[in-house]
Amino acid sequence: MGDRLAARWPVFPYDATVRISLWLSVVVTAVLFGWGAWQRRWIADDGLIVLRTVRNLLAGNGPVFNAGERIEANTSTVWTYLVTLGAWLGGPVRMEYVALAFALTLSVLGVVLAMLGTGRLYAPSLQGRRALLLPAGALVYIAVPPARDFATSGLENGLVLAYLGLLWWMMVCWSQALRRPNPVSSKYFDATLAAVAGLSVLIRPELALIGGGALVMMLIAARGWRRRVLIVVAGGLLPVAYQIFRMGYYGLLVPGTAVAKDASGSKWAQGLTYLTNFNQPYLLWVPVMLLAALGVVLLTTRTRPWWVRHQVPRGYGWLARTVQSPAAVVLFMFVSGLLQAIYWVRQGGDFMHGRVLLTPLFCLLIPVAVIPVVLPDGTKFTRETGYLLAAATSVLWAAVVGWSIWAANSPGLGADATRVTYSGIVDERRFYSQATGHAHPLTAADYLDYPRMRAVLTAIDNTPDGALLLPSGNYDVWDVVPAFPPPPDLTPAERRALRTPHTVFFTNMGMLGMNVGLDVRVIDQIGLTNPLAMHTQRLTDGRIGHDKNLFPDWAVAEGPFLKTRPYIPAYLDEDWIAQAQAALACPATESMLTSVRGEMSPRRFLSNLAHAYDFTKYRIDRVPLYDLQRCGLPVPEPKKPPYTGMPATGP
């Protein structure tokens, strides 16, 4: 048994200094990261959106945000179901604490796996040599304040770190398999690695660039068609199965969030602003230069690994050996980080400071997560040269440590952290801490202290017959559009059994959705939970991440609410409501809405599957009159004379 394991897994006879220093580095970095993240613990409003979906899953309503409306409001499929599993197993434990525990644990695990993978990368060249493996790239990552912010945000950032750390460690193992005296490529390991790579698109859609690249490398290096079939099946089975489910159940090719934010669009100028916003507070170019210099020194001191074969194994050509090599894996991860960064800059970044650039940063830092400081032994260099190189490495590493200490205590965005300025970017954790009055807003109950939250519960209680609630300018009051009154001849028992329609139209649907019952429909104007808003066009100059804005007239038009004065607020227009109601009769719009609201059946599933592409591309105009013109429908007669300008004046 031991011989078989030794044949499959390279055994690197580390010097004690290497092994001890690596594990000390891992433990110290993990403790620092965990402690730093705990000091900044919180749950974001977007994290609460996930928990609303989890509530519906556990209640038997399916993976939806609002019961009876199949909207995939969460970007990370795996994160949603992982939290659901944890909440189910946790029983009475609050979902927020389940999400917090998962997020923090996975964040720390991701950094640990990254460091172990990089340690394994350097291990062969350190065989028989005394060296210290010290944290470098890992230290840079955990020093950046947003990295610690989003380690406990209730979002999937921790899952992404754990995934990338695991993929990196496995890719390093895979790259070293052919470079042993007795190369053995385990089909079980290849299948597992392929399955992990294929999972990327379910972690976050844009990670398909990384997972897909790993699968391509494996297919190029695979020997024989059977191994290639195994890789394709293992890597594609779960993603393809879920994609079929998504198309049939939600009627879309991508998560609803991708449609809401038009992930295929481009906002280069805003993306560069976002990149600058992330770089400037922490001077990220400093560690980049220091780590680049460290890379040059490491290449200078590198020795040829003792285990590299001089003969090509039978069945492996030059291309296969080149692709399945440590150098190729390092290049793959580095290029993946660059592609992720370019994607997000093109997309326009995000409204949360630093969040979406953390993944590219992590990918770029992984190859130098730890760095070796080789103690001079006089083998490759003279002792004097060896001491000089060790000193240079130590000085550069000390500079990285110094920058990390400074960055970890940086004020970040400073005075602009909680203000929505022209860039639209805020420090989300500080924003909600200030707005709720809680240093660590962790639960939905904490968010009741956010403006308007307690008032919405009062408004729902005060409208037993149902209503549409719209946010007013007064934080303690909601504007109410009453629902059509129930029949007056109901018996008391029938009235108690009557399900009254409540809909709340608000941007912060996470905190709202977690503080109201699942029988309350929560929709937004930016399209994360509202199918109509989701299918509007992206505003050119809108705030990034919020650059769709559906007028509330549509919410009145599509619901069972009174649509005329005096029952609607003064800022709503009766004609717009009538036009929106008419626009909802557009056949294409009706088909799109039926795909998410119609009763699910085998026929509905197959219909959605066939039309998912059309529904994904479908867009309406947020101005009802223009949407009527787009669809070729007649405009309803105006309820009031059209405005023709100021009356004529003069003699």
UniProtKB/TrEMBL annotation:
The keyword Transmembrane applies. Keywords: Membrane, Transmembrane, Transmembrane helix. Residues 497-613 form the Terminal beta-(1->2)-arabinofuranosyltransferase C-terminal domain. Pfam families: AftB_C. The chain crosses the membrane at residues 20-38, 97-118, 159-177, 197-222, 229-245, 282-301, 322-345, 357-375, 387-406. The keyword 4Fe-4S does not apply. InterPro entries: AftB-like (IPR048243), AftB-like_mycobacteriaceae (IPR048218), AftB_C (IPR058983). It comes from the Bacteria. This is Transmembrane protein.
